[in-house]
Amino acid sequence: MSDPLESSAAATGTPPSARTKVRRHPERAAYDRAAVVAIVDAALLCHVAFVLDGVPHCIPTACWREGDHLYIHSVRASRLVAALTGGTACVTVSLVDGLVLARSALRHSMNYRSVVLYGTFEDVTDPAAKAASMATFLDHVVPGRAALVRPPDAKELAGTALLRVSLAEASAKVRSGPPKDLLGDLAWPVWAGVVPLALESGAPLPEPGCAALPLPPVPARYA
Amino acid sequence: MSDPLESSAAATGTPPSARTKVRRHPERAAYDRAAVVAIVDAALLCHVAFVLDGVPHCIPTACWREGDHLYIHSVRASRLVAALTGGTACVTVSLVDGLVLARSALRHSMNYRSVVLYGTFEDVTDPAAKAASMATFLDHVVPGRAALVRPPDAKELAGTALLRVSLAEASAKVRSGPPKDLLGDLAWPVWAGVVPLALESGAPLPEPGCAALPLPPVPARYA
Ligand SMILES: Cc1cc2nc3c(=O)[nH]c(=O)nc-3n(C[C@H](O)[C@H](O)[C@H](O)COP(=O)(O)OP(=O)(O)OC[C@H]3O[C@@H](n4cnc5c(N)ncnc54)[C@H](O)[C@@H]3O)c2cc1C
Ligand SMILES: Cc1cc2nc3c(=O)[nH]c(=O)nc-3n(C[C@H](O)[C@H](O)[C@H](O)COP(=O)(O)OP(=O)(O)OC[C@H]3O[C@@H](n4cnc5c(N)ncnc54)[C@H](O)[C@@H]3O)c2cc1C
Ligand code: HEM
Ligand code: HEM
Q: Which residues form a coiled coil (chains A, B) (predicted)?
């Protein structure tokens, strides 16, 4: 009786470095640019890990992509900015797509898309480049928003740090589809299947004076 | 004209250690157990950061809480298990609650609840304790599910690693509420307010033969 967990599918592409090679479930890996970009573009959030005095730190921050870089922003005078421009970071993007409910406990899982990348962040300091990237960021979150809001002035831009890291050393890992129960468990009398999950937007809560203005075209879901 | 970003609110509780003291927006911090537990209990996912040969790694995994510990599981023979029991980890739980859309670009933000903790994972090896914790995990994801599924056998349990880390050295950080535009920006003619976001469940996709079985009582949202 063959075990459906033992997949014969192969990864897409080849790892860009030894440390990006997916070892657990290698058949779920993809290393091509298109796979990495699709996951980063769907995300609002990443987790950035860095090392200070030998201790790991893992900080959530908003992110977006331009070309071959993942961007984040923070306040200029912060630990995050100092740490990320001074050493290797690991950046992880994780999208949860569903609960995978199997007949057997062990075969429960989640459907997901994730990217893990390694690199050193670069500090983007040119004011025009910063203004353009912050506009791209705003439009990534809400399409068309950059043109409508009060743009950052020179002082606000100067206080903002814009950091970017290359997507060159990245891996993607994706689980999709139904649970994979053992043949001997298929008759177990419990509901099995997938329950989709997604980050969905709800009814907007306007500020006083905004109820009559056009609503922002926020996507129904970020996924 | 006072700047509403300069809040005079204070953190709840005191940091359990120097490295857990929130420095950016300290008024958003909470260090009491109740605040930390509420955020961990609402989460399906955490990001675990660890250091190997000086390089940070950030790996997403499912998580749950029992008492004063956060638990994760993996396959026994994995890098993750070896790394986490051999050094300090940083574990981060991040829940995205909404987009904060301000009149000015700079005042855009997100509403969120997050926990960052430091500690060394402990390997829970007692088979009875492991079986009980995996049942708690199943019930965290879908209430009542542990009693319905085919339970793990001894070999399956032995191949599973159950790791836990204390919640003692944790901080919580929460942003909630509307955008905080400068008074001079309040008349800018663009919609401002909050667009709620939440991880919502969709219509279940049953496996063949499961359509007539009782649906799992998956929460409408994990939040
Ligand atoms: C939403 C979600 C929930 C998950 N829940 C669990 C869980 O509960 N238990 C569990 O064991 N695993 C879980 N995983 C998978 C987990 O992220 C790791 O892939 C797995 O634990 C193996 O980790 P490792 O460090 O031992 O991997 P290895 O395969 O040894 O890692 C080697 C390299 O592969 C790459 N890589 C590893 N994981 C990923 C990834 N997720 N995405 C992209 N590249 C990657 C990195 O470059 C890494 O350095 C989950 C993943 C996601 C996205
Ligand atoms: C969904 C989400 C999106 C975010 N987006 C951004 C963004 O785009 N830009 C940005 O600058 N910041 C963002 N933040 C805040 C970010 O997580 C950090 O709090 C902030 O960047 C300061 O980081 P630091 O390392 O400089 O903090 P410091 O305040 O110097 O960190 C000191 C200690 O405080 C604790 N701590 C720090 N951050 C958190 C946290 N989030 N939760 C719990 N404890 C914490 C940790 O113990 C840390 O070691 C976001 C947070 C969340 C949850
Ligand atoms: C008794 C219950 C469970 C046991 C014994 C168990 C065991 C395991 C083991 C051994 C692995 C590692 C697989 C590998 O990398 O080769 C694993 C991975 C995983 N488990 Fe579980 N698990 C249980 C329940 C759950 C539940 C309830 C969920 C979530 C709904 C879950 C989600 C996952 C995910 C997402 C992975 C990662 C798979 C991947 O690498 O792509 N598990 N589990
Ligand atoms: C031109 C546009 C923007 C500029 C110049 C800007 C600038 C900044 C700066 C300087 C900080 C650090 C604040 C501090 O820690 O004191 C910050 C934090 C943050 N920004 Fe932005 N930002 C912009 C747009 C956005 C957008 C579009 C979003 C997301 C919708 C966003 C989300 C956040 C979040 C979540 C934080 C963290 C706040 C906290 O620490 O609690 N920003 N931003």
A: none
Scanning B142-222, the segments in alpha helix (DSSP H) are: 154-159
- The ligand whose atoms approach the alpha carbon of B155 most closely is 3
CA of B72 to the centre of ligand 3 (A): 10
Distance separating alpha carbons of residues A23 and A13, to the nearest angstrom: 14
- The residue ranges of DSSP E strands in A67-206, in sequence order, are 69-75, 89-101, 109-119, 122-124, 160-166, 170-175, 193-201, 205-206
What is the structure's pLDDT at B8? Answer: 60
CA A182, CA A176: separation in Å to the nearest integer? 18
pLDDT bucket at A2, cuts 50 / 70 / 90: very low
The residue whose two tokens read 């994730």 is A114
Shortest CA distance from A139: residue in chain B:
B105
- Tens of pLDDT along chain B (223 residues) come to 345 455 667 889 999 999 999 999 999 999 999 999 999 999 999 999 999 999 999 999 999 999 999 999 999 999 999 999 999 999 999 999 999 999 999 999 999 999 999 999 999 999 999 999 999 999 999 999 999 999 999 999 999 999 999 999 999 999 999 999 999 999 999 999 999 999 999 999 999 999 999 999 999 999 8
Query: Nearest to residue B20, comparing CAs of A36, A59, A87?
Result: A59
Give φ, ψ of A213 to 5 degrees: -80, 155
Taking the domain B18-182+201-222, which CATH number applies? 2.30.110.10
Whether A73 contacts A157, CB under 8 Å: no
CB of B223 within 8 A of CB of B42? yes
Cα–Cα distance measured from residue B134 to residue B160, given in angstroms and rounded to the nearest whole number:
10
CATH class (in words) of the domain with range A18-178: mainly beta
Output the CA A107–ligand 3 centroid distance in Å. 7
Cα–Cα distances in Å, from B183 out to A149, A150, A160, B106, B180? 15, 13, 21, 14, 9
Tell whether A158 is within 8 A of chain B (Cβ): no
Every domain of chain B and the residues it spans: 18-182+201-222
